[in-house]
Each structure stands twice: as C-alpha cells, then as structure tokens.
C-alpha cells in the first residue's frame, strides 16, 4: 500500500514497469488522522528521502511516528540521524545505496524471518523522541554552557 499525496497513476505505471499488476498495488491519499490507521495495516513501512545536503541535519517526523506504532521500517542512510536510530533501536533496515543489490539484500532480510520486536521499537521511540527526554537533554546542554 502506498500512502501518498502523489499522483497514483504514476505509482501504478512505475509498478507496471516492474511487472506488478495494477490490482496488486493499493494507493491511498490520506489525511493526517487517517495515516495511523492505514499504517497499522502494514508489516513494514518504507520511506526514502533524497540524501542531499539540506537533509543531513534533518529528522523526519514520520520516522518517530512509525516507531511509536511499533512498525519496523526500511529507509535510506544520509538523512539526519536516521541510520543511528534504526541501528540503536533495531527498528528496521537501512539501505545505503539505491541499487538493485541493496533492495535485494533488504528483501532477503525480511524473507529470512529477521524478526523485529514491536514493543522494543515503541520503547525506542519513547526513549529517543519523548518530550521528557528532550527536556533532560536540553537541560544538560544549557547546564554545560552556563558552567563554562
């Protein structure tokens, strides 16, 4: 299922280029309120973000939201601290290159039953993204600055 505001006919056409029948591809345009329900139907969430200079210091909101739902994800490196978070909390697969081999390696990890623990993924989201954790980190940073 593709949850996307993009033109669904383009998604279907891209699938056809790879011999995927249109009736096997589900596309949904969803409001913010509908996204969690649709995500809950998935075994994995996949998102790729172009790893350009401006994305080196960004943190995709969807990453935290997906982890908070306990859903393992497949994403790319080169965007903020996404790779470090995925590796630290064992919350999915990071693809380092947009190549057929990298996609096949990720698919093999899924097919061989590499199990992800939804409860642990949710705990990781709470630990890393919680407001209380952010407050504590900021207090330490400001405390260190003021002591100098």
In the sheet with the most strands, the strands line up as 3-4-5
- Provide the succession of SSEs: EHEHEHEHEHHH
Output mean pLDDT: 91
The percent range for strand residues is: 5-15%
Count of spatially separate domains: 2
Describe the global form. Answer: elongated
Poorly predicted spans:
none
- Biggest β-sheet, characterized? 3 strands, parallel
Separate helix tally: 7
Helix content: 40-55%
Structural class: mainly alpha
Query: Measured on Cα atoms, how large is the radius of gyration?
Result: 18 Å
* Structure summary, number of beta strands: 5
Termini, distance in Å? 52 Å
What would you say this structure looks like, in words?
By secondary structure, this protein is mainly α. It has two domains: 1-41, no CATH class; 42-147, no CATH class. Helix content is 49%, strand content 10%. It has helices at residues 8-17, 35-39, 61-68, 82-89, 100-111, 118-129, 131-147, and strands at residues 2-3, 27-28, 45-47, 73-76, 92-95. The strands form two sheets. Strands 3-4-5 form a three-stranded parallel sheet, with helices on both faces. Helix 3 (61-68) crosses helix 6 (118-129). The protein starts with a strand and ends with a helix. The mean pLDDT is 91.
Give me a quick take on this structure.
By secondary structure, the protein is mostly helical.
């Amino acid at each position: 299922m593709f949850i996307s505001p993009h033109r669904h006919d383009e998604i279907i056409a891209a699938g056809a280029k790879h011999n995927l029948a249109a009736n096997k591809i589900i596309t949904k345009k969803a409001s913010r309120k509908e996204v969690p329900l649709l995500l809950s139907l998935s075994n994995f969430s996949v998102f790729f973000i172009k790893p350009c200079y401006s994305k080196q210091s960004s943190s995709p909101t969807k990453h935290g939201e997906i982890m908070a739902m306990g859903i393992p994800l497949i994403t790319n490196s080169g965007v903020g601290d996404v790779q470090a978070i995925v590796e630290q909390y064992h919350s999915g697969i990071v693809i380092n290159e947009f190549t057929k081999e990298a996609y096949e390696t990720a698919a093999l990890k899924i097919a061989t039953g590499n199990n992800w623990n939804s409860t642990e993924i949710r705990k990781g989201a709470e630990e890393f993204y919680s407001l209380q954790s952010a407050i504590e980190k900021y207090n330490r940073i400001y405390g260190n600055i003021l002591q100098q």
